[in-house]
Amino acid sequence: MTQRARSAAAKQERERAILDAARALATGRSVREVTLTDIAAAVGMHKSAMLRYFETREQIFLRITAEAWQEWSAAVRAELATAGRAEVAALLARSLVSRPLFCDLLAQAPMNLERNVSWAAVHEFKTTVLAEVDAVRKALRQRGISEQGTALLTTTATSMAGALWQMAAPGTQLREFYRSHPELSHALVDVEPRLTEILAALVKGAG
Questions:
Q1: What is the pTM of this model?
Q2: Residue 11's pLDDT is what?
Q3: Pick from 150, 131, 142, 129: which is nearest to 199 by CA?
């Protein structure tokens, strides 16, 4: 029994090291650019050995996405507790844009990360996310926003944050290419004010 407990603890410690390494790599680059080989090298493991801990590269980042949802949900609910209704749109936009990796993950999860894992992994991920969405919606209702309005706000805020972040291509050569070609200036999306504008319209229309 004691040996099993030590083994479980060691497995959790190694899983944590893998997740932390993947998060650090994705923060420095982007989720799309980080390979399983990169993560294995960062933790000093052979790529095949990582299959004892995670099914695929996508499962690693799906776990990171679930944790990012939990962190964002807790932070935004704490801010909403003292915010007025007029502050909601800017608060949501700021909370998302201040988390670049989360914005990247929000776009990658439905397009890629959920597509190369087991159904059990998808179920675990979706269950975690839905619980956090429900918690944020409850906090929004306490700011006088209707049930339907909270659904629109949470869905739009998180989906648009992911989409706009990809369009903006921050910190990439593509962004610099846009800057160097004035005729492409429309592609230089400024995510926070654009997202705030969209969410403010929703808040205004939500009963």
A1: 0.88
A2: 85
A3: 150
Q: For residue 6, is pLDDT > 60?
A: no
Q: Return the residue matching tokens 């994705």.
A: 26
* CA-wise closest residue to 166 among 94, 97, 103: 103
Task: Tell which wins on pLDDT, 73 or 175.
Answer: 73
Are the C-beta atoms of residues 196 and 89 closer than 8 Å to each other? yes
pLDDT at 200: 95
With beta carbons less than 8 A apart as the criterion, state whether 58 and 112 touch.
yes
Cα 161 to Cα 17, 153, 198: the distances in Å are: 28, 12, 11
5-22 residues labelled b (16+ CB within 10 A) or e (exposed): eeeeeeeeebbebbbebb
Lowest mean pLDDT among 1-10, 47-56, 140-149, 188-197: 1-10
Q: What are φ and ψ of residue 135, in 5° steps?
A: -65, -40
Question: What's the CA gap between 59 and 182, in Å, rounded?
Answer: 40
Which tokens belong to 7?
């083994």
- Position 4 scores a pLDDT of 42
What's 98's DSSP letter? T
